[in-house]
Amino acid sequence: MTAVLAKSDFVRAPLLAADAPDYKEWHHFVVHAPGSPVLINVSLTGDRAARIIVIAHDRRWTGVVERFDPSQLAVSADLGELTLGASSMRVTPDGYRVRVDLPHRGIRGEVEFTSVSRPFVVNNQPVGEGRMSWLFVPRLRAAGWLHINGHDIVFDDEQAYHDHNWGRFRWGGDFGWTWGTIVAEERDNPWSLVFLQMTDRRRLRSTAQAVYVWHRDEPAAMLLRSAVHTSVHGTLHRAADCTLPAPMALIVDGAVPGVPERLEISAERLGDTVHAEFRPTSYARLAHPSEVHLDRCTVLCEAGGRAHVTGEIRGERIDFDGAALFEFLHG
Fold it and tell me: Which of 33, 73, 82, 108 is the most buried (most CB within 10 A)?
């Protein structure tokens, strides 16, 4: 399993981003720490701009977006390590090592992610007028620490998720997405689930959707396209805990866009069935100026909450409560 990861994941930009200002790539990590989930995102673009996003939940979501000058960015010769100033992300033989060092922001940490499930790769998915590929690892173990908001969060073999995305598209194009990760609360429960739905900007038409179900370290079912149905209920009656970068809160309206009060996902194919119900409890917003329209922003809502998953895969029953983090992109 580790050999598969080591061969599959690496920094793509040096190979794909030449003369491509619309190129984007990011490594996205979620630690499902009980009571204190954490999101770390390391990204770069075709013009060698780079940033680190750190968001943590302690009664409410807080975090920072730190941007780096191209002179502070380096990629190792083996394409396995991305360095941004004193921070870094390294692909290891069995996972990832992330170091965050932002002393002027009061944020430091080191987290070792060890894969316990095989990665899966999707290539050349349409995103508006562009294309995007991604690799995800639905289940990892996280060990380490993060100092943020004046105190330490310690990760003692916590459950985690990772995805790596790369492609050429422009923020603000005619697309939106919902992306979610669910892992069972009980560590010995073998099931985990990843959900993806790509839509047009107004969320009136689905262009791709999938439910990926993993059993221990192996994919157990991939339910795609018309096999998947979603239902959105209401709007969460709670404003975002924070908007990042902070100045964007002056531009993005305080109530819109938000997240649903409840999201139901159902999928069925050849006897395999899955039903997941996600109930967010709070969320943070990330806002980025549109690259298509001068008067718009692209907003990503990172929503944490609980999920309940039931179903049957290959004759084996599924029934568990899980920690979940969903991302809702509004173009």
Answer: 82
